[in-house]
């Protein structure tokens, strides 16, 4: 049987730079969160939206609130991975509309034996557009309970496998561009 994957959209942030919930902002005729949904839908058997806002129920997908509230993306990742039914989960932020499915093909090809598979390029790793095993949730719980909310540091301590994506970035220079403020729109 072919392996099935979960999808997780991180959409529970404060959006303080945008001033309004960015996943629900319209960008080029589509809500930002919808870009993530359209990306993951053909790749994943179930999509979870990690959010504390009931407005995300409009997408008709499972929504999961943070159990570690106000702890940043790691809190959302922890809650969604805990609820996932799948071994590997494709995670994407709600504010990166230029991610292409090929990125996840590259990460999936490197998943054997890895708990986290994360893209890396000359500016560092991209832990919020990455592949996570469900069991990483228990490690995240330990880190969150210890008050460690630093995404890059925590993910590197998971022995993440880093996959160079410079070739893909040459073809898609905006691949990881995130829309954080009105000026980005
Ligand atoms: N579930 C959940 N997701 C979060 C949380 N904080 C950030 N995120 C998500 O993680 C991604 C990156 O978040 P940031 O842009 O760094 O933070 P933000 O709070 O959304 O925005 P700013 O307040 O402008 O920094 C976005 O998709 C957020 O929705 C959180 O506490 N819980």
What is the secondary structure topology, with strand pairs?
Layout: E1 6-10, E2 26-27, E3 30-31, H1 32-40, E4 46-50, E5 62-64, H2 73-83, E6 88-93, H3 101-109, E7 116-121, E8 124-125, E9 129-133, H4 136-145, H5 151-157, E10 161-164, H6 166-171
Parallel strand pairs: 1-4, 1-6, 4-5, 7-10
Antiparallel strand pairs: 2-3, 6-9, 7-8, 7-9
Helix pairs in contact: 2-4
Function: Transfers a GMP moiety from GTP to Mo-molybdopterin (Mo-MPT) cofactor (Moco or molybdenum cofactor) to form Mo-molybdopterin guanine dinucleotide (Mo-MGD) cofactor.
GO molecular function, one term: GTP binding
InterPro entries: MobA-like_NTP_Trfase, Molybde_CF_guanTrfase, Nucleotide-diphossugar_trans
List keywords for this structure.
alpha/beta; binds guanosine-5'-triphosphate; eight-stranded mixed β-sheet; 6 helices; 185 residues; Spore Coat Polysaccharide Biosynthesis Protein SpsA, Chain A; 10 strands; two-stranded antiparallel ribbon
